[in-house]
Amino acid sequence: MSETFCYILDNGAYTAKVGFSNAEPKVVPNCIMKAKSERRRPFIGSQIDECRDASGLYYILPFQKGFLTNWDTQKTIWDFIFSKECCPVNLSETPLIVTEPIFNFSSVQEAMTEIFFEEYECQTLLRINATDLAEYQYRKTHNNECTVVVDSGYSFTYIVPYIKGKKYREGIRRIDVGGKVLTNHMKEILSYRQLNVMEESYVINQAKEDSCFVSQDFMADMEIAKRKGPTNTIVKDYVLPDYTTIRRGFLRDVVRPDEDLEQQTLRLNNERFCIPELLFRPSDVGIPQMGIPEAIINSIEACPEENMESLLENIILYGGNTMFRGFRDRTYNEVRALALDHYDVNVTLGENPVTYAWEGGKMMFRDPEFYSFCLTREEYEEEGRPLAFERFDI
Amino acid sequence: MTTRESGRVKEGEKRRVLDDAARKRRARKAVEALEQDNFHEDPHADLVMSKKVPKFSDSNEKPTRKKKAKSAEYYKMRFRKTFAQLVEEDASYRPEPPNYMSAQVGPSKFPDRHFCAVCGFLSNYTCISCGARYCSVRCLGTHLDTRCLKWTA
């Protein structure tokens, strides 16, 4: 029953990372989208690439606040993912690794087990936290004792300390700021200041990815953004897609009014660094929570003191938000400033932040003990759900 | 006979001032709005799908799967629980921390920063009526004209 490859599904709230362990992962939007321009069909997952005009997209997401709640939507998307159109698989022959959020609710866990064994006729199943996979990869490549995993995703940011490969639950911290909050905040301020883009989540999300960066010195950047003329090195124009000649927007320098290029643009100035700033200071929009570096320290302080040194030396960042330019440096600088002086601090950005956990699954499959983590169909039929709760540490 | 008095004081008394509860309500609404998935109506909401329309598939083959796949609708009914229900359920299933609720981080020890509600730069002043922040007379003017007591979101 040892297969040479397995199927890994890192089921995120915004994108699912999916593929066989002997191939490259695909990043598929984990949602159904409806376009104004095409009235006949909804777009499931990566079908959105076929949509000619992605303005005013309407989102139907299976996740709410980071947890799976809309099962009909999720089932439709999984059917698409497992079909010929996306990444076909026969789960009765291939082991499956599927990820779940930390502290996933018990009834959601039950539903996961049931749907994979009974609907998709899975033979071997491993349900696991994405952070576990990330930690596994980090530990195997760094040979360290303790790790702090920072997963900054769409719905929230989790900080999970691991001691000798096991997560230390008392130290787990969640910040309710993720990519969704950033995009919504950006839409809100741009709609008030310039142009109503409240309906354009898809386009503004791209604008956010293309133009935002994490400031290293917030107050200094604010001063630069205030300047007029060429000394303001931050202000740029974001050219919006028109879906005839421009499919994806892009950032360009501000041009003089007389050389107008007849493109529809948004002027981005302090927005470029005030948006990602929310990850570091959620209180800027009235969310009464700590920012990421402060929460990292808070999490480490909740762990046994003898592990503090190793934890501070092994901080790994992944997830879509960590791809903002300057994210790692800012996190390092602030953690460095908050930690005691005689400790070393190391902050690593996952090589490919979006698929970092997925790659961890690939490594875990090669673990000689891999099958002892899994649940087989026979075991499930024999003992049912209680065994699933016992075996999977979610 | 006219009494001497300040024009600004007179003006100020006429102004409606939001109380603390209303300000908090507004702030909460603004934070809640950040969680929304869509800000417009389903563009296909008015489409009526007719069940009588014949369905065509690419091949003539009959589906050969042994077990009939359950519809998405079935799973919707089977695992129907809202987020609020799930949180409540979790509180009784895992009453002792660490759990979902206890993992949320507390407030920062750093003081809040305030930004102009209009232009986004640092602000030093607070609108008397609604408590929004502003940085200059110009921004205050914009704020009064557009959002102050008119904002409904």
TrEMBL record, chain A:
<dbReference type="InterPro" id="IPR043129">
    <property type="entry name" value="ATPase_NBD"/>
</dbReference>
<dbReference type="InterPro" id="IPR004000">
    <property type="entry name" value="Actin"/>
</dbReference>
<protein>
    <recommendedName>
        <fullName>Actin-related protein 6</fullName>
    </recommendedName>
</protein>
<keyword id="KW-0539">Nucleus</keyword>
<keyword id="KW-0206">Cytoskeleton</keyword>
<dbReference type="Pfam" id="PF00022">
    <property type="entry name" value="Actin"/>
</dbReference>
<dbReference type="GO" id="GO:0005634">
    <property type="term" value="C:nucleus"/>
</dbReference>
<comment type="similarity">
    <text>Belongs to the actin family. ARP6 subfamily.</text>
</comment>
<keyword id="KW-0963">Cytoplasm</keyword>
<dbReference type="GO" id="GO:0005856">
    <property type="term" value="C:cytoskeleton"/>
</dbReference>
TrEMBL record, chain B:
<dbReference type="GO" id="GO:0005634">
    <property type="term" value="C:nucleus"/>
</dbReference>
<dbReference type="Pfam" id="PF04438">
    <property type="entry name" value="zf-HIT"/>
</dbReference>
<keyword id="KW-0862">Zinc</keyword>
<feature type="region of interest" description="Disordered">
    <location>
        <begin position="1"/>
        <end position="23"/>
    </location>
</feature>
<dbReference type="GO" id="GO:0008270">
    <property type="term" value="F:zinc ion binding"/>
</dbReference>
<dbReference type="InterPro" id="IPR007529">
    <property type="entry name" value="Znf_HIT"/>
</dbReference>
<dbReference type="GO" id="GO:0006338">
    <property type="term" value="P:chromatin remodeling"/>
</dbReference>
<keyword id="KW-0479">Metal-binding</keyword>
<feature type="domain" description="HIT-type">
    <location>
        <begin position="116"/>
        <end position="148"/>
    </location>
</feature>
<keyword id="KW-0863">Zinc-finger</keyword>
<dbReference type="InterPro" id="IPR039723">
    <property type="entry name" value="Vps71/ZNHIT1"/>
</dbReference>
<feature type="compositionally biased region" description="Basic and acidic residues">
    <location>
        <begin position="1"/>
        <end position="22"/>
    </location>
</feature>
<protein>
    <submittedName>
        <fullName>Jg17410 protein</fullName>
    </submittedName>
</protein>
<feature type="region of interest" description="Disordered">
    <location>
        <begin position="50"/>
        <end position="69"/>
    </location>
</feature>
